[in-house]
Design goal:
16 helices; globular
Length: about 400
């Protein structure tokens, strides 16, 4: 029987799928994701109870729903992490087609739930789905496929195609308006384009165009302008979400005010979603916030280090895009809470409440775990490289 060694663990060609998956998957990243989900459940017990009481629902209504969504997300993540890069590319293209179709239908059958942006589709049974959440990982897959194809001899102009696709997606998201997701899609594309060999000057031109688009959005969208004006204002209205979040973070100090003793969850409308980090800071203090940051940082850094040895262009480009998007989404969410960034309505992956968000995060991280699994070709290349040195 053929046997290959990955680190100190042998992997046999005839192994069943699950033992082979366990030997090759990044268990540190997997453990960090499980830790984030556990923290999200813990914070949900505090942050979502006031909302349930205001809506005359059972105390742990939202906690139960989040546990169901989280369980679904973890199952999806584990299943997707067993897929091969080729199969991921195929389902990425199919998923992108479904998500973009749903986004195109939003102006006709979408709803804004009173938040000023038409981002959701209503489903039977009182459920709703946000297509842009599922678009992100699929967009990374299809863009990486196009960029990788352009590196083949006689391949198509994949980089030009991916740029056209990115421009169309960003425009559609901006029209909702959903500038947070649009900026995250553009960031992912820039990272992948850079990894695929794009010159810095060209990327600078893309960012300049994006800046011009931001100026246009400021003049054309009252929703966008209101958020930018609030961010640039020297004074913080204590009755706004940013005001409540800032005060909660200051009150938490190093060790927090105590479990269940925080007050921001009773005043902040989005305490269980966009501003969940404020609840963590107030009740558990700086220690909890740093633990959350460390978990996200570990997933991103370990993924990038494993992808550094990857020789397949699609795997390397797509994995880098997914890892950076995962980390930057968390960075944006926390940056908004501490007023380093304007409000964007973006969730904290695996921690914030939300069905679409947590399941889409499960898909994205599942794809990342699949792409960062140890492969024979990478290990052989590493051994040969050491031999030459």
């Amino acid at each position: 029987m053929t046997e290959m060694v990955f680190g100190t663990t042998p992997v046999r060609a005839g192994d069943p799928i699950l033992p082979r998956w366990w030997r090759t998957v990044d268990r540190w990243s997997l453990g960090c994701v499980m830790g984030l989900f556990a923290i999200g459940t813990l914070l949900g017990l505090a942050a979502s109870v006031p909302l349930a009481e205001k809506n005359n629902l059972p105390q742990f209504y939202y906690v139960t729903r989040q546990a169901i969504f989280g369980g679904m997300a973890l199952v999806v993540m584990l299943v997707v992490s067993t897929f091969s890069p080729r199969f991921l590319r195929r389902i990425g293209v199919l998923g992108f087609a479904i998500a973009i179709t749903a986004i195109l239908l939003l102006p006709f059958i979408g709803t804004d739930f009173g938040k000023g942006a038409v981002r959701w589709l209503r489903l039977p049974g009182g459920m709703s789905v946000q297509p842009s959440e599922f678009l992100k990982p699929c967009f990374v897959a299809i863009s990486a496929w196009l960029m990788a194809a352009s590196q083949e001899v006689g391949g198509p102009p994949g980089k030009a195609y991916s740029f056209t696709l990115t421009a169309a997606v960003v425009l559609l998201l901006a029209m909702q308006p959903d500038f947070g997701q649009a900026s995250l899609v553009l960031f992912s594309w820039c990272v992948m384009y850079f990894i695929s060999g794009a010159p810095i000057i060209l990327l600078g031109c893309v960012l300049l165009i994006a800046g011009m688009g931001g100026v246009f959005a400021y003049t054309a969208s009252e929703h966008f302008a209101r958020r930018i004006d609030g961010f640039l204002s020297a004074e913080i209205d204590p009755r706004t979400q940013i005001g409540y979040a800032t005060n909660a973070i200051q009150e938490g100090r190093f060790f927090g005010v105590g479990v269940g003793e925080g007050s921001v969850k009773w005043s902040l409308p989005d305490a269980h979603t966009d501003f969940i980090i404020a609840v963590a800071a107030e009740e558990y203090g700086f220690i909890m916030v740093m633990a959350i940051i460390a978990l996200y940082g570990t997933v991103v850094i370990r993924s990038l280090l494993r992808l550094r040895e990857e020789r397949d262009p699609f795997t390397r480009i797509a994995g880098t895009g997914l890892a950076c998007a995962f980390g930057v989404q968390a960075l944006i969410n926390m940056g908004v809470a501490v007023r380093l960034l304007p409000a964007k309505g973006m969730t904290l992956p695996f921690v914030s409440y939300g069905g679409s968000s947590v399941i889409a995060s499960g898909i994205a991280v599942g794809m990342l775990l699949a792409l960062t699994r140890t492969r024979p070709q990478n290990r052989i290349g590493e051994i040969l490289g050491r031999g030459h040195r």
